[in-house]
Amino acid sequence: MNTKIFLVLLVAGALCAVQPAKAHHAFAAEYDLNKPLTLNGVVTRMEWANPHGWIYMDTKQPNGMVKHWMIETAAPSQLSRHGLKKADFVDGMTAVVKGYQGKNDPGLANGRTLVLKDGRSFYIGSVGGPNDGAEPR
Amino acid sequence: MPSIVPTFEWLEGLAWTTALRESPYGYPLIETSHVACIVVFAGLVIMMDLRLVGLAFTNAPLAQIQRRLFPWQMATFIPSMATGILLFCVDPLRYYNNVFFLAKLVFLALAGLNALAFHLKTYGRADVWDEEPQFIATARWAGGASLLLWSLLIVSSRLIPNNWFK
């Protein structure tokens, strides 16, 4: 009986050890680390919401066509901690967002940094994203 | 058939749902409570089910185990339902057509019916549960079904954030 319990615990422990190698959150499931991007465009709308915020942005493509982006940000508590306020977002303002493109949805991105028109820069990445140096400290 | 979407848009636009959706601490607090209550509830249900299946506490009368665990199960089930309904109200359009959320509701209904049927039967006949063979067989099935359904519910809950089928 004791050996049985020991074996069960051993297998369970081994499985637990494997777990941290996968992403803590859905980043790896939805976003592509090999597709970093910098989006320079017009913020049409910002959803300051839990569990993630969303920045809706229009960028001009080289061919002149407008592309609509849906950019995931961290939750309101995290955005506030990095100094951002809901009032910093005004529909129609220009901004630069750095992040990673979605794996399956080409109009989806995970935002890492946001630079406003006045030059202020904010970290907007959610917990569980890549360690790409964009995060503060 | 009229669409349910306008109702959900109205719900999402209410002052209190908007405030919660945008709140720095309120939403995480409710979300954490929801998960914490489910964790404790599931633990209590698993112990009850293991007794029913015949794997745990087999030397203690089934009725006694159930009477001891039941109030604690309810004390965690009710707040987990309340917080769950709140989380839905805060963002109804995000959930109403999410395949994993709908699966969660189906498993919740099935697990609830299984528990209700079993509970109504056991409480009346608690004295004979540990002796009558046909009752023991029913208990094993009820416990096994409960283990399966609550596990499926938790797995589908965990998959809700993935928008794989949008």
In words, what does this structure look like?
The complex is a heterodimer of chains A (137) and B (166). With 137 residues, chain A is an alpha+beta fold. Chain A has three helices and six strands, in the order H-H-E-E-E-H-E-E-E. In chain A, a hairpin with a 4-residue loop joins strand 5 and strand 6. Chain B starts with a helix and ends in a 7-residue tail after the last helix. In chain B, 20% of the residues are buried. The model of chain B has no long low-confidence stretch (mean pLDDT 91). In chain B, helix 3 (26-53) packs antiparallel against helix 4, helix 3 packs antiparallel against helix 7 (133-159) and helix 6 (99-125) packs antiparallel against helix 7.
Question: Which helices and strands occur, and which strands form pairs?
Answer:
The complex is a heterodimer of chains A (137) and B (166).
Chain A: H1 2-18, H2 27-30, E1 31-47, E2 53-60, E3 66-73, H3 76-81, E4 94-102, E5 108-116, E6 121-123
Parallel strand pairs in A: 3-5
Antiparallel strand pairs in A: 1-2, 1-4, 2-3, 4-5, 5-6
Chain B: H1 5-13, H2 15-22, H3 26-53, H4 62-90, H5 92-95, H6 99-125, H7 133-159
Helix pairs in contact in B: 3-4, 3-7, 6-7
